[in-house]
Amino acid sequence: MTDFQTIRAGEQTISVRKDLRVPMRDGAELAVDAYHGASDKQRPALIAMSAYGKELQALALTTPPQRRPSPMWDGCIEAGDIARVVKEDYVHVIGDMRGTGDSDGVMIGNYNFGGVSQGQDLYDLVEWVAAQSWCDGNVGMIGISYFGSMQVLAAAERPPHLKAIFVSGGHYDFYETTYHGGIMWFMPRAAREGRGGDSGIAHTNIKSRMVETHSPEELKKLVDERLQDPDVAAWPNLVHVLKYPKNREFWFDIVMNHLDGDWYEERNPITLAENIDIPVYLQIDQGRGWTLDGHIELFDVLKGPKKLDIGSYPPMQSRPWVEEHDKMFRWYEYWLKGIDNGIMDEPAVSTFVEGSREVVTAAQWPPKEIDYKSLYLRPRRKLSFEPELMGAEHAAPDGFYQAPLTVTDKVEVLNWNTEPFEEPTELIGTGAAHLFVEIDQIDTNFILRLWDEAPGGARQLITSGYLKASHRELDETRTTEGNPYHPHTRAVPVEPGKIEEYVLRLYPFAATFQPGHRLVVELSNDEPLADAHNALLPPDAFHLPVGRPVTHKIYRDAAHPSRLVLPFTTVTASERSGS
């Protein structure tokens, strides 16, 4: 039974329709709450749907926004500023996805792979909302991260009354969300289990896709095989998840699927986005390269009216989420209310450039013409535009030994740096790191991070790259200069003692190095758990450490030109065309 009530938020009165039951085509019902102004007039609706629980989202009315590293920051309060949405004269519909919160049904696997499509449920919800007496038939969506991904899944189903979406910080290629360069990332564990600053999914009725599709005998064999990976076997939480998956179903599925393929591609939002023809605004801040990458990839796929807005560092917005609302309401004012505010007369792509703090606009990404140039790793930890001329017998390799974190707390980090820049130097785009490395094991991780270091030593992360050594294979048909592509469909053990070329993809970025600043590149096979960048992320936002001792030799001589390939800007596309 629906509970209708009114509440006060500052100076305004908000009407709340609690626990509305929305019928799905298979008979299940989803639970939603609807917030709107005091009068009964019809309004456009903005729908926010996730598995995190609508009651958690209601805290946006009572909890001031928190920023990392506040311990009160909860990564799952992502549905938006309810009071602001109501003040702008929209209905804010917040609900629970199938199998979570107060909704019916079963969710099978992450994003319901193998169960009822979440896009199908969202189609039914959009059309139900549009038909309600309090909605004028114009529907958009709201929310970041998981909520953003749901917007893409909904739009791909083409519900007739979904007129536009505004996506911030969504996750798209689900393999890339959970394995960076083949290296397992722990943050999805937090979102699903509720650890390290996240409340997690409001579990009610969920099941593992792996458990649903394999017999107990098959699954035991697959689990035993997964535990042969010493990285997994050395991490207690992963052993526990694999041995006792019952209440960790989603994380169990991720751990069990460490290669890309059908399991991830079945409902990949990037693939589904080819069906989207409504207007889409994509917004993402720098500092979370894998997510920025997904937004750019999605932007390139979309065929309808679209915007790409790349904001400034730091990487994590407030919780409850309140940022970007000005841009969002301007977008919906145009597409849901029919007010010509000029937004579609502006360039499609807007990019904040770190360092110069300029905003560059263009019709495409990257927003300027670029010229890929190489910065070579040289002896004495230097980076230079000139390659090394001596052979390895004289330019002996750099190296480091990393013991597993079961026996040490120290993460070894090698670094190389340029001389201070003499003039502003701008880089915008993706990049690559070509590293010639010899290891004494069959596998390791390569974690590479680029920093802008100021004369006083202060520094900011610019971009990063990840690659599991056994995932080094490249798809040559999709690899271009400065933009390598790894299929991650199989793992090929490394021959110990053999020098291999590893090509790491550096996530997209935009930065200007000011005079006196240096570019510093760091290489390790694990990552420091606390530094200038990681302090801005939730505690679980690190990668699975290597579980075996590994000695690394990094060659950077005449025969082994280890280097960074970086996107230095030249002129803008408009300057080139003379417009």
From TrEMBL:
Taxonomy, superkingdom: Bacteria
Domain (Xaa-Pro dipeptidyl-peptidase C-terminal) ranges:
329-565
Family matches, as InterPro entries: AB_hydrolase_fold (IPR029058), CocE/Ser_esterase (IPR005674), Galactose-bd-like_sf (IPR008979), Xaa-Pro-like_dom (IPR000383), Xaa-Pro_dipept_C (IPR013736), Xaa-Pro_dipeptidyl-ppase/CocE (IPR050585)
Pfam families, per this entry?
Peptidase_S15 (PF02129), PepX_C (PF08530)
Q: Which UniProt keywords apply?
A: Hydrolase
Gene Ontology MF terms in the entry: hydrolase activity
Q: What is this protein called?
A: CocE/NonD family hydrolase
